[in-house]
Amino acid sequence: MKNQLRELRTLQSWSQNDLATQLGVSRQTINAIETGKYDPSLPLAFKLAGLFEKRIEEIFTPES
Amino acid sequence: MNDNISNNEPAETRGAHFKKTIKTNGWLFVTTVTFLITLYSVRENQGWDSRLRVALTLLPALPGLIYLRTLWGTFKEMEELQRRIQLEAWAFALGGTVVVSTGMNVLNANGIGFEDYPHGLEMGAAYISVFFFWCLGVAQATARYQ
Fold it and tell me: What residues in A contact B82, CB-CB < 8 Å?
């Protein structure tokens, strides 16, 4: 799964720590999502979408 | 086993996490001590009533169950990547132990026996094996999601 998380986070000038704190997850989770090593759960994806005021499919797109 | 703390947690949360870890692992300590005491008592007092010996032998299961319950609670409260890492580590630990145990049994069946373990892995050795593979699993999963 590809995602725009790093770009969206950078646009807000947030560090990975800032974003992690807002979402209640670890910085490692944010890093793993950004590098495409981990796909978040649906509740976390909704939290991310809500935080960036985007739809989930605007942040996450399938690889193919 | 419950190291789900992240580097950006405030000191207050870390304190609460520490207390919870002590509480959870405290039950493991109680289980182990109860097991050792009852094991010693039952072995040293063969003349005791058989019902009492059965009750004493099964007694460590009580703190053991409480330990599992607190462990499950801690697992459910983990943030999702840590939970995933733990799940992968436990699957690796159990799978690794099954492979080692089965391998030893197959070798024994073919006459290439382990003199110390003629019946495969015994309980204590199985726990050590699970712990060993769990450590490997956590290290491997943590490195993968780094």
Answer: 26
